[in-house]
TrEMBL record:
GO function terms (MF aspect): isomerase activity
Record key words, sorted: Isomerase
Domain SnoaL-like: 64-157
Domain of life: Bacteria
Name of protein: Ketosteroid isomerase
Lineage summary: Bacteria, Pseudomonadati, Bacteroidota, Sphingobacteriia, Sphingobacteriales
Length: 167
């Protein structure tokens, strides 16, 4: 097999690698160059790899809905059986439990800042600060470290370390 060269790879139509490359599970765009294809073609076919959206990008896109208070649109980014572990506090199992949590604790959309985002395979780790409005009207400030696990581009699990800031 040849190496990717600027995300474009050339293969020969008569090469057995063509079928393997197309069937390897990646989404590929095929662009033919040259004359109209027929059964006698021996010219190269250029295949450009289309990269799927990275999990960190998906997470930040989903969190934009949280910032706007549109929790249902955020939940579309979660698997039906998503699990959220708030270390030392509670475990939420399933999209409905996450929905209930958001209704209870996000009286107003949370205000959060992202300090760092680290992506490694199916995991995205995010650190930052979040401010939540409490039922008594006061605002509580926290530092957080969230570890998100993805399955097929959806949020399957969250392990959250949240520490209240003391004044």
């Amino acid at each position: 097999m040849r190496n990717w060269d600027d995300e474009i790879r050339t293969i020969e139509l008569y090469s057995s690698n063509a079928g393997k490359l197309i069937d390897n599970g990646e989404r590929l765009a095929i662009k033919l160059y040259g004359s109209t294809p027929d059964s006698s073609i021996t010219e190269p076919v250029h295949i450009q790899k289309q990269t799927k959206m990275k999990n960190a990008t998906i997470l930040h896109k989903a969190n934009e809905f949280v910032k706007k208070g549109n929790y249902e649109s955020f939940l579309v980014y979660c698997t039906q059986d998503t699990k959220w572990f708030f270390v030392g506090e509670r475990i939420l199992e399933g999209r409905d439990k996450v929905r209930e949590y958001m209704k209870e604790f996000y009286l107003e959309p949370p205000v959060f800042t992202v300090e760092k985002t680290i992506e490694d395979g199916n995991y995205v780790t995010v650190t930052g600060e979040i401010t939540l409005k409490a039922a008594n009207g006061t605002y509580n400030h926290y530092d957080y470290c969230d570890i998100w696990r993805f399955e097929n581009g959806k949020i399957a699990e969250l392990k959250a370390f949240v520490i209240e800031k003391k004044s």
